[in-house]
Amino acid sequence: MAFNYRTELQRYRKYYQSLEPLVSRPSSHAYTTVVFSFLAVSLFGWYAIRPTLQTILYLKREITDDTVTNKQMEDKITALIGAQAYYQQVEPLLPAVDEALPPTSDAIPAAIQFRNLASASGVLLTSLQIPGVPLSSPNANQTTTTSVTPVKEAPISISVTVKGDYQSIRSFLNGIISLRRIAAIDSISLGPAPGESTSSQSAILSSRLLLLSVHLKIFYIGT
Fold it and tell me: 104: number of CA atoms within 13 Å, CB side?
């Protein structure tokens, strides 16, 4: 059916005419003004308050994140304080650790230790052999990096031969066991010193000169 605007106009005009007395009343006019004023204030107020609300929510989220970060930092600081206190307790022992497992392959201090041990034990140091020693520690020429390089113990072979009586030889062996430097004995050979009789039944063991050969390994920190 074709749209007849005249008929529709007449029908809607009746609606407008029926609403006109209602709107024209003072009370209705006041209510309408209040409603539109409220809508206008609400609309403009929302656009004015919205940025503030967004800022408040953002700041609240930032405060929450900062609180978590602050808690994590406090935990790390507490752990560092505990580690520092523990380090201060063990700091006097660090030189002993370096003596037990030196950071370099220098074998001269070990040779001096064996020489002094032989002198203190009353034996004669006849031979001290170090077949091969690295000229420098594998860590010496490495540049410092942020990553942690794993380390392990690297061995140095040493052969020591001493001559003395039984008690002196025993004292020397006990001294090797008691060395602060970490050492592992591979083999030990003990026999009469050259020129000593092995067939005499009247000879007392403690009065004989014995020859002791010890093959061992000492260690240092390598990579």
Answer: 9
Q: HSE (CB half, 13 Å, CA atoms) of 98?
A: 10
What is the CA 100 to chain-centroid distance, rounded?
A: 23
Residue identified by tokens 């113990």 is 153
* DSSP calls for 85-121: HHHHHHGGGHHHHHHHS-SS---HHHHHHHHHHHHHH
C-alpha span between 128 and 149 (Å, rounded): 34
Q: Among the residues of 25-90, which ranges form H helices?
A: 26-90
Q: What is the pLDDT of residues 33-66, one digit of tens each?
A: 666 666 666 666 666 677 777 788 888 888 888 8
Instruction: Tell me the C-alpha distance between 127 and 113, whole Å.
Output: 14
Specify whether the CB–CB gap between 137 and 104 falls below 8 A: yes
Structure tokens at 161: 């031969």
**Structural contact between residues 205 and 166, judged by C-beta atoms closer than 8 angstroms:** yes
- For the 101-196+203-222 domain, the top CATH level (class) is alpha beta
The pTM (predicted TM-score) of the whole model is 0.53
Distance CA 177, CA 165 (A): 19
